Automatic annotation (TrEMBL), chain A:
NCBIfam families: PA_CoA_Oxy3 (TIGR02158)
Lineage: Bacteria, Pseudomonadati, Pseudomonadota, Alphaproteobacteria, Hyphomicrobiales
Protein's GO biological process: phenylacetate catabolic process
Residue ranges of the TM segments: none
GO cellular component: cytosol
Pfam families: PaaA_PaaC
PANTHER family in UniProt: 1,2-PHENYLACETYL-COA EPOXIDASE, SUBUNIT C (PTHR30458:SF0), PHENYLACETIC ACID DEGRADATION PROTEIN PAA (PTHR30458)
InterPro entries, sorted: Aromatic_CoA_ox/epox, Ferritin-like, Ferritin-like_SF, PaaA_PaaC, PaaC
Name this polypeptide is given: Phenylacetate-CoA oxygenase subunit PaaC
From TrEMBL, chain B:
Organism encoding this protein: Nitratireductor arenosus
Name of the protein in question: 1,2-phenylacetyl-CoA epoxidase subunit B
Broad enzyme group: oxidoreductase
Coiled coil (UniProt feature): none
Keyword Signal attached: no
Length: 250, 95
């Protein structure tokens, strides 16, 4: 049980850390000052959620590792985030679409997890659900305006839909770990979140006059630690300080 | 690509219920929905508010700086308009 719980928590935490890191890469590079604050705001929400999850994971593991050890000192194959969050940022529209997808997936997850039998997870979820609702709103409003905007913004949104399509199905993958979490009343089965995800994204796409085109094939492997070529570069950035100055603190 | 500039919005934040909205700055945004979001992201990061107003900057009518003297100087010599000429009994306490 505690093995499955640990894997489950690390998957969730890694998703949030890696996506938070990706968003933070926009800091100082956003197309306008307002977004230069909005994206790091969302990044900080995600990293805050990751911290809470790593702290809990470290406690469940019970081997004396800290949240920093889990976040910064594992090897690439030990990270179990989904592939979507590690994909490069692309242009602003691409980043907003990825944010919408992830938030539309997490919102029903957190909503259900807020009544989890695991009290620690329920507490993390109760806080995260509000943050996630704002991410949907923020990213969603951009997707609407860029999709139903100029010819160029529309072309870019369509390119983003195509580029991210192979990474959508992985979000909803289940396995023995997720089955055990569901059985224990700790977390919802990812596949059960698909309908709500489709509703959220569908409503926004309708307003944006965009159509979702499923990919010919779906990428998979992140949950088992098999990552794309982007992951090593992320970890090089992310782990540089801790590896150069082990134990460094503020 | 359109060269239209993104409009400017003035942002007013109410720090607590019962207080008035106060001007705190401006943001660029394509429309009112995005302006509220931008204002939230730029001006309420440290728990500054419980309510946001945004107003198109173009809708603000401002006094002419050239009329500063005739507008405001006459008030400077009328100190009797300040309520500082009353003796308040100690029992009233802080007003």
């Amino acid at each position: 049980m505690s093995d499955a719980l640990l894997t489950f928590l690390l998957r969730l935490a890694d998703d949030h850390l890696i996506l938070g890191h990706r968003l933070s890469e926009w800091c100082g590079h956003a197309p306008m000052l307002e977004e230069d604050l909005a994206m790091p705001n969302m990044a900080l929400d995600l990293i805050g959620q990751a911290r809470a999850l790593y702290q809990y994971a470290a406690e469940i593991e019970g081997k004396g590792r800290s949240e920093d050890d889990l976040a910064y000192l594992r090897r690439e194959r030990d990270y179990v985030n989904c592939l979507m969050v590690e994909r490069p940022n692309g242009d602003f529209g691409h980043t907003m679409l990825r944010q919408l997808y992830f938030a539309a997936f997490m919102e029903p997850f957190w909503t259900m997890a807020s009544t989890s039998r695991d009290e620690t997870l329920a507490g993390i979820a109760a806080k995260a659900v509000k943050e996630t609702a704002y991410h949907i709103r923020h990213a969603g409003e951009w997707v609407v305006r860029l999709g139903d905007g100029t010819e160029e913004s529309r072309r870019r949104m369509e390119a983003a839909i195509d580029a991210l399509a192979p990474y959508v199905d992985e979000l909803f993958e289940g396995d023995a770990v997720s089955a055990e979490m569901t059985k224990a009343g700790i977390a919802p089965e990812p596949a059960s979140l698909r309908a709500e995800f489709d509703r959220t994204v569908g409503a926004i796409f309708a307003e944006a006059r965009l159509t979702f085109a499923p990919a010919a094939y779906a990428q998979t492997g992140g949950r088992q630690g098999r990552h794309g070529e982007a992951m090593g570069f992320i970890l090089a950035d992310l782990q540089h300080m801790q590896r150069t100055y082990p134990g460094a603190t503020w | 690509m359109s060269k239209t500039e993104i409009p400017l919005w003035e942002v007013f934040i109410r720090p607590r219920n019962g207080l008035a909205h106060k001007h705190c700055g401006s943001v660029h945004a394509a429309d009112e929905v995005m302006a509220i979001q931008a204002a939230r992201d730029v001006y309420t990061r440290r728990g500054e508010g419980v309510s946001i107003w945004v107003v198109p900057s173009a809708a603000i009518v401002a006094s002419d700086p050239e009329h500063k003297d005739e507008n405001f100087e006459p008030a400077l010599t009328k100190i009797y308009r300040h309520p500082t000429f009353y003796d308040i009994p100690d029992d009233v306490g802080h007003m």
